[in-house]
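Bug #77: duplicate submission created two jobs. Keeping one. Sequence:
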Amino acid sequence: MPRTRLGSPSRGDPFHAQSRDRQRGAFSSACRRGDRHGPLARQGPEEPRLRHAHPRRRGPLIPGLHRRQRPDPRRVRPLRRRRGDHALDQSGRDHHQQRDLDLVRGQLRRLRAASGLVQGLRGDHAPPFRCRRRRGAPRALITTYDKPSQDNTRNLLAHPDTRVNMVTGGPAIVKVAMTVGKTCKTIAAGPGNPPVVVDETAVFPKCAEDIIFGASFDNNVLCTAEKEVIVVEAARARFLDAMRRDPRAFELSAAQADQLTKLVIKEGGKGCKDPVLNRDYVGKDASVLAKGIGLTIPAEARLLWAEVPNDHALVWTEQLMPFLPVTVARDVDAAIDLAVKAEGGHRHTAAMHSTNVANLTKMARRMQCSIYVKNAPTLYGLGLGEGYATMSIGTPTGDGLTKASHFARPLHCALVGYFRIA
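Kept job's structure:
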């Protein structure tokens, strides 16, 4: 069945590069632009309206609400594929972080150099951008509100000129998006608390190296990143030894882990449906977390970790920071049971390190996650290993990993009674 084409990048596009360094650079690029030239133009001080950024553009205007900690990958990669404009609102509680102009200018320069698709804050155009504008590219790829608020969020999601809503966040904002009173497609990327199970057949020390890389990447703010490790008793000694030998990981004592937990989690733990984190530590370096409890760690350390009991608060909370709790289960069945419970039923992401195909299959069937990675960092489930890269994982709305077809509508054209040969 044919689909409306929203455009696709060329093979030489840096966003298609599969190497780790180039993909990491693509993940780290984004832009945010004021309302003057973008799809959000103001009629009055409190009366935002939506308009087309360019009469020749071929993609729809898509409202999005994203978490501020690390929204960049969710915004740019999908926009490149669906060839539309994006009007953004941040979470209301994050408005104090939104105007870091120096950071935004740096992100704009990197993205413009990579894609030639983004206009600078001062109206300066790179030559590739002018070429794309003549072919109908939008004037502003991404536009944001100056002052995010709950009213702006609802108005944006309910605006009659938009046909798709894309939302990232917890259950509360997903509920808002689904009940704004407008009939349109909604893609909601909900929370996740990805567990990693390590059994006795895993390859050591590779499993520990992969987990450290994935959990420390971008300081663990990706929703797909490893959040807790559940290792079977038979593999405990080998796994802990591999973790201790890696200079990128710094082990905390039980007392230090409890001290850090009290610092970074305001409300959370087993049974808490809406945890509250200390946002001063979300996405910060491991050295910043260590300093918060009076520790100085080596410069090469990118991840803090500690062995904790099964009911520890960090096992049950999506912490979004480079601290990894490691807990032990009796056997692989107990480990998978704990992983299912700790993940919280979000069915977002999970991983397992094992060479036992039966165990790998058993966990896959129990978890039923949108992303399930075997014997690699969970980051490899986003196109670095196989598949394609996306940061909008619409598990609550049944979309899974989003791609261009999620932002297109199938069209069926039937001809009856004419053009008959016989």
